[in-house]
Amino acid sequence: MSSKSNISANTPHILILGMGGTIAGLAPNPEDSPLQYEAGLVGVDALVAQIQSVVPVGVNLVSRQLANINSRNLTEAHLTNLGLAVKEALLDAAVKGIVITHGTDTIEETGLFLQATCGKLAHTQSKRVILTGAMLPSNVPGADGPSNLLDALRWASTPIDNCPGGVYAVMDGRGCMAMDLAKRHATALNAPLQNAPSSSVGLINPSWLSGVKAVQATWNEDLPIPQEGEWPWVEILTSHAGARPETVAHWLSSAVQGFVLAGSGHGGFHDGWIEPLDRAMLQGIALARTTRTGAGATLRNIPELDKLGCCASGSLTAPRARIALQLALNAAKQANKAGKPLTWQDFFARMADLPEIK
Ligand code: SIN
Hints:
Layout: E1 3-4, E2 13-20, H1 44-51, E3 61-69, H2 76-90, E4 95-101, H3 107-124, E5 128-132, H4 145-157, E6 166-171, E7 174-177, E8 199-200, H5 206-218, E9 234-238, H6 245-249, E10 258-263, H7 274-282, E11 286-291, E12 311-312, H8 318-337, H9 344-352
Parallel strand pairs: 2-3, 2-4, 4-5, 5-6, 9-10, 10-11, 11-12
Antiparallel strand pairs: 1-3, 6-7, 7-8
Helix pairs in contact: 1-4, 2-3, 3-8, 8-9
């Protein structure tokens, strides 16, 4: 889809990429039923027009609609297109920062994807990529989209307390690293940042900033963006009371390439899965463990010794671990083609072992 701008291509600007979401949603009865609505109906140029009059003087905006969807329908092809657009913009001297309007339901996946594929480039180019969205549709009283978009634009366009280039998110007056997003509340205005170490948009706190810098120092190579159609097939399986062997065995005749196990507690799984998971690994299916608890890290060989080849996911939640495993499988394939003997575990560990921001 096209760019919308009345400035010349070389004029310094902030690029706003529209993906859809509630921020672009419309409720038919905004006063009576504000939460009954359709996401992804308003164009990104209209969202920008709503706040144009309060954008700081001298900040030029260019908007580009990449998709206009409810993010629960996000596909891997959408991620490929978004990643390529972000990379292109990071390399464009006229683009000073990038804001992405996105649905909050799967903003968690997109946050990890962009960190893993564009985080280093954003850092070296000293540009901020800011994801934002809204919990209320655009036409209801008190809609949070305009203030979130304005905060995101301010953060993308102004030097704030030495905050380095990188991939961030802004919602409800707070910012975090995009890789720390996880929507853990159905309705709260700060839902995707509730569990994330964050800082106020106006006043970046020094301990958060030093955590960001530790991540930036550790993340020293972006992973390749899988081409559309090249994304490995990875499923999330959640362990629970009464889990059955068939839940795993069912997949063994499919072309699935990896499982993320959302285990209980430390990331352990039901004994009923041991035998079919052994068979899965013998078939070459990649295995990563995480926890379904919603917080805390999954550590190597805790609570039991890991099977050889199975990776613990650190602080990656199941949806993030799934993206990480897809990117790791793809990166290993590309590396092997280029004659480098790297495994998916090598790439996965880079994402699972990133420093945790407290
Ligand atoms: C969506 O994820 O597109 C809908 C929900 C939201 O944006 O909050």
